[in-house]
Amino acid sequence: MVSKEIEKLLLKVQKPGRYVGGELNEVIKNKKDVDVRFAFCFPDTYEVGMSHLGMKILYSLFNSVDYIWCERVFAPWLDMEELMVKNNIPLYALESGDPVSDFDFIGFTLQYELSFTNMLNMLKLSGIPLKSCDRTGLKNIVVAGGPNTCNPEPIADFVDIFFIGEGEEVDLEVIELFRECRAQGCDKSEFLRRAAQIEGVYVPSLYEVSYNDDGTIKSFTPKENAPAVIHKRIMKNMDESYYPDKFVVPMIEIVHDRVVQEMFRGCVRGCRFCQAGFIYRPVREKSVDAIDSQCHLLCENTGYDEVSLSSLSSSDYTQIVPLLEKVNKWAKEEKVSMSLPSLRVDGFSDDIMNRIKTVRKSGLTFAPEAGSQRMRDVINKNVHKDELIQTCSTAFSGGWTTIKLYFMIGLPTETLDDVAEIAHLGQAVVDEYYRTPNRAKGKSVKVTLSTSSFVPKPFTPFQWEPQDTIPVLHEKQLHLKDSITTKKINYNYHDADTSFVEAVFARGDRKLCKAMELACERGMHFDGWNDCFSLEKWLEVFRDSGIDPAFYANRRRSFDEILPWDHIDCGVTKSFLIKECKKAYQNTTTPHCRLHCSGCGAAKYGEGVCFEKRKNLV
Amino acid sequence: MKNVRIWFKKDLECRYISHLDLNRTMLRALHKSRIPVWHTEGFNPHPFATFPLPLSLGFRGVNECMDVKLEDENYSFEEITSKLNACLPKGLRVFNVTEPVMKAGKIAYASFTMRISEDKTPSSEICGSLERLMSKDKIEVEKKSKRGLKTVDIRQGIKSFEVKQMLDCAVLEVVLSAGSSDNVNPNLLVTALEAETGLEYTLDITRNDLYNSDMELFR
After folding, report:
1. Which domain holds residue A477?
2. Other C-beta atoms within 10 Å of B194: how many?
C-alpha cells in the first residue's frame, strides 16, 4: 500500500511493480494489534531480494507470531532513489507503506560483501543515523544476519545486534526480549546487554579492539559480561524446523521465479575455498517425506509450476533418487517441473538426468573450479577429469549440446600452466562431444568457460592467503584467453576489480567502518552491479580514510595472528583449518564427511552427518 | 472444449504491472485454481490464455478481458469467478465470465477516463490547454517504433471527447482508435499536451470499455 506522493513517482520509473507490494500471500496486519514491527530489509533490488529463501522463511516465521508484523523493504533502483530523495520521500516498507523509521527492528540480511554499502544507504534513505551509538532510544534497533555475519567487523559500528548462524530461533528470542525490555522500561543499552547473553547474539559495541603498530589486532576484549566467544546457532532437526507453507508471489518477474525447496543445509565436501562449505556445518538433511510435502504445499499455495530443489550440492542428498521419484508422482500430473541447481560433476547420473529431463530440459552447468588436477587437489574439489568427461558424455547422449563450466583463477599456489589447463579441459569436453556416437545429430557443441577471481574468505583453510593482485589476475585472464584455440569454446570472466574490493571487506576489521561511512556519504551503492561499481571511487575512499586495501586483500597472514573474526565460533576449529591449509600446500585432498570424519569440530552440535552411519563402517 | 471470456478489473498495485507480468500472474492463478482450462502441449505445458487487447502499464482497467478454453464444458462460470479470485492478488478481480460473442479482431475503439493534474497549475488552466489541443486539425507526436522515432498524426484516431473540470484535476473522457491496426495510446495525447505547455503532468488513466467499429460494446 503506497501513498499518493509515492504513486506520483511510480509512472516515472522503470518497473514500478517493484515498489508497490500487493502480491498474493503478502501479510497484512493491523498495526494496532501488534507489539513489534520488524522491517526486513534486503540490501538489493526487489527482484534479487524476493528470490532469497532465507527472507521467505523468516518473513513467514515472524508473521506466524501474533504480536509481530514483519514487512519487506528493498533497495530502490537508481531512478526511484533519485526521485525519492528529490521529493523527500523516506524509504518505506511494502506492506503498510510506512516509513522504515517507524519500525522497532530494522533487520538486514547480508549475503555478499558488496551489498554493505546498500545497507548503509538504506539507513540513510530512511533518515536513521548510521552509527549504532547515534541511535539512542529503544527503537530502530538495527540487526543483521546472513553468511557475512561470520565476519561482521567491517560494519560493526552500524549494527546493534548481529545474529550468528541460523536465525529461526535466535531472532525470535531477541524480539521477545525486546518486547519484555520495553514493557519494563529498559533503555537501549540494557536491552543490548541482556541480548548479548543469548547464544548466537553478537553485540559489537560490547567489545573493545586494540591494534599493534603494524595494523594487526592486539587484543579483543569483551565488556559488561559479554561472552568472549560467540557461538553460532543452528537448527538441529531440519524436519521439525520451520518452513513456510506460502511464499509471497511476485507479480513482476524475479531472478528465481519458482518454488525453492530446501533439501539440506551444509555440504559434506569441504572444498577449501568455499565459505558456505564450512560455516553451515554439520550437514543436516530433511527427510524425503518432509521435502515432498513441503514443496507440494508450496506449489498449491503459490501456483508456481516449477520447483527448484535447493542445497549446496544437490546430488549429495542421500535420498536424491527416491526423492525425485516421489515428487514426480504428483509433479507430472500437476504439470510441475523440477530443477536441480548445484549438481556436482560426479553426481550427474543417467538416473538423475532422466528424471529431470522428463519435465524440462534446462542448460547444464558444472563447476570443476580449477583446470589442472593438481589445482583441484589443492582446493579439495575431489573431481577428476575422467569424471567430468564421463558426465559430459552422459549429457551429450542425453541430447544436451550446451555445457557451461565454472572456474576460479587466482587460487593459492596457482601457476600460468594451471590456468592454461582450464582451456585444455574445455577442449577435452569439445572432443568428447564428437566422440559421443549418439549425440544430437547435426548440431554443434558449445562450451562456455567462465572464470571468477578467487576471494579468500574467513572460516576457510585459505583465510590466511593473499589474494592475487589485479594485474596478476588480468595476466591470468589473458593467458587463458590465448590458450583457447577453438570457436566452440566461449570464454567470459568476472571483473577482477570487484573481487578486490570484496576481498578487502571479506577479511576486514573495524578500521574499515570509517571507509564504509565515507563511501555512504559519497553516495556509493549497488556495488555488486556493474552499473555502479567504480574501483577508482573505492581507491579514493580508502585513501581518504587512511586505509591500505592491500593490507586486507593481498597480505599473507601468519597462523598465529589474531584474526578479526576469531571471537566468532562457526563450528569448525582453527586447528582444523590450519591442518587443511597445510594439506593444500602438499596437494593433498581430504575425503568428504561421509567417507571419513576429519574432525573439523562440527560434531559438537550432536546432529547431522557426524552421526550418520558411514557405509564403509557398516 | 468451450471458449470463455473472463472479465476482470486491474487496479490498485496491479495497475503498475506490465502486460507481460499480467499474463504471467494470470497463468499462475489459472494453474493454482485448477480450473480445467486447456494447456499448451509440448515441453512446458501451461494454461493457454489470450488477451483481446493488452492494457499498458500504469492504466487502471475496469472492463478487461482474457480468453481461455474450458476443457469441461459444464464447468460453472460462478466457480471460475470465485476460484480465480481466490488465487489472484487483490488488485485483479474477476467479476464476470461469458461466452465470447465477438472475436478479438473486431475491437476498433476504447474509451478512457484521463485524470490530468499538475501541482502548480489550476485545473481550469489544464482544461483550457486540453480544449485547445483537441480542437486542432492535426496532433502530431513522436512515436517510438521498431524502426526508431517517427512522427504521427493522432487526430484521426480520436473518435470523440469531452473535457471536464474537477477541483483537483482536469478530466478528459475520450474514445480512441484501438486494436491491432490503428491503436492510439492515450499517453500520446499527454505527450502532445506536454509538448504544447512544457509542463509535466501527473496522470491517472482508466480504460473503461472496448467497442467494435459500429461503437457496439465489445462482448
Report:
1. 363-511
2. 15
Domain assignment present for residue A258? The answer is: no
Residue of A nearest to B45 (CA): A335
**Are the beta carbons of B17 and A251 separated by less than 8 Å?**
yes
Residue B105 forms contact with A (CB below 8 Å)? no
Using the Cβ of B160 and the Cβ atoms of chain A, whether some distance falls under 8 Å is answered with no
* A247 contact residues in B (CB cutoff 8 A): none
Q: Taken in order B145, B151, B154, B157, is the CA torsion positive or negative? A: negative
Q: Which of A24, A96, A361 to mutate to test the interface with B (most CBs of B within 10 A)?
A: A24
Q: What pairs with residue A143 in β-bridges?
A: A107, A161
* Among candidates A20, A335, A361 on the partner chain, residue whose Cβ is nearest the Cβ of B13: A20
A177 inside domain: yes
Q: Do residues B129 and B65 share a domain?
A: no
| Tens-digit pLDDT profile for residues A71-92 | 999 999 999 999 999 999 999 9
pLDDT of residue B18 exceeding 90, the answer is: yes
Q: Residues B83, B119: one domain? A: no
Domains identified in chain B, total number: 2
Distance from C-alpha of A244 to C-alpha of A361, rounded to nearest angstrom? 28
Which residues of A fall within a CB distance of 8 Å from B22? 251
Q: Which three cell numbers stand for residue A140?
A: 530502530
Partners of B17 on chain A (C-beta within 8 Å) are 17, 251-252
**CATH number for the domain that contains residue A418:** 3.30.750.200
Domain span at B32: 2-100
**Does B154 lie in the same domain as B92?**
no
The per-residue pLDDT for range A501-536, each reduced to its tens digit, is: 999 999 999 999 999 999 999 999 999 998 899 999
Task: Tell me how far CA of residue A445 lies from CA of A253, A487, A488, in angstroms.
Answer: 30, 10, 6
CATH of the domain at B137: 3.30.70
Q: How many CB atoms lie within 10 A of CB A551?
A: 17
Round to whole Å and give the CA distance between A363 and A432: 18
Report the complex ipTM: 0.92
Sign of the Cα pseudo-torsion (A117, A123, A124, A126, in order): positive
CATH of the domain at A16: 3.40.50.280
Phi, psi of B69 (to 5 degrees): -110, 125
Would the CB atoms of B32 and A8 count as touching at under 8 Å? no
**pLDDT value for A468:** 97
Q: How far is B214 from chain A (nearest CA, A)?
A: 33
The residue from B52, B73, B100 where one domain ends is B100
Contact flag A252-B28 (C-beta cutoff 8 Å)? no
Chain B: closest CA distance from residue A249 (Å): 9
Asked if residue B188 is part of any domain, the answer here is yes
Query: pLDDT tens across A163-216, in order?
Result: 999 999 999 999 999 999 999 999 999 999 999 999 999 999 999 999 999 999
